[in-house]
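pinned: reference chain
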Amino acid sequence: MSTSPIISVIVPMYNVENYIRKCLKSLQNQKFKDFEVLMINDGSPDKTVDIAREFAKKDKRFRLIHRDNGGLSAARNTGIKFSKGEYLSFVDGDDFVSPTYLLTMYNAIISTGADMAYCRYRFNFPKNDINVTPPLRMRKQVASSQKAMKMLISDFVMHHYAWNKLYKKSLFTDNNIRYLDMYFEDISTTPRLLYYANKIAITDDYSYYYVKRPGSIMATMNAKKINDYVGAYGIMRNFYEQKNCYPQYRTRMRELGWRIKYINYYSVLKMHTVSLCPRGVIENLKNSRKTLYYFKSDNYKVCNGIPKVPYPVVQPENNLKKIKYFLGETLSYGK
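pinned: its C-alpha cells
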C-alpha cells in the first residue's frame, strides 16, 4: 500500500456490537487493496470498540479514532478530517458490503472521469439473514450533475443516503461541506455534493447491504426527527435559491414535498398514539403542514446559514409512562 491510500472508508460506530465484526470483515475482504478504514468510535458504551481494536491490531489499514458521543454527523465529519485518501466512502457500522464494493465504484470513476460513483443496494434482515432487493433500480449510466440531481430529489430510484457512494474528497474540502448536526443530514448534504460534482457514474452492481434492524430513525419518529425531516427540505430549497437554480428543480422539489407531507402526517399521528396523548395533535399536524408550505412557497425568502423551521412540531406528553408507573405503584401497593 502507498503512503497515502487512494480511498478512505469512514465507519461511524455507536452501539453496533452485534454487527460491527461483519461490517469490518467485509471491508477487510475487498478486492481493491489500496484503502484505509477509519473506525470512528462515537463514545459507544458496548463492546464495539473492543472488536474494532482487534482489526486495528491485525491490519494496518484499519485506524481506530475515539471521540465523545456527538451523533452520526459528527462521526462522519471526524472521519473526513482525519482521512488521507483522495476518495471517500461511508459505511455505517451495522451494514456490510460486497468484496467488489470499492473496486467497482473506483473503476467507474476512473473510466468516466466522474467525481462521484453510485452502486445499487439490498436490504438485509439480520434475524434470518435474508436480502431483499428494492423494486426500483438505477440504470447503469453516466449522468450529468443536473440529471442526477433531478433523480435524487425524486427519491425513487436514486436516494440521498451518504452510503452506497464514492466521492472525491475535494467535493467536501474545496466547498467546505460537512454533515449538519441533525437527523436526515444526508438529505441536506448529498444535493450540495452533487451540485459541485461534474457527473456521477452509476454502476449496476448490488454492492451495499443496508441492515434493517429495530430502532431505525423512521421507525422511532419523534418531534425532533419530524422537524429535522422538513427542515432538511428547507435547507435544500435554500441552497438551490442561493445558487439561482431552484426553477429547474421546482417540479421535483414539490413532488418530494408532497411525500414529506404525508410521511410527517403519519409520524405525528403515530407519535401521539404511542404517547397516549391526543392533546396537541391537531396543532402539530397544522404546524407540519405550514412549515412545508412555507418552504415550498414562491414567496420563500432565501437566508444566510441554515433556515429555521418556522412552525415546529412539539413533543407530546408521554402518558404511557405515567400509566405504567401508576399501574406499577398500584400493583406494588396491593401486594
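why pinned: The chain has two domains: 7-211, 218-321. The chain has eleven helices and ten strands.
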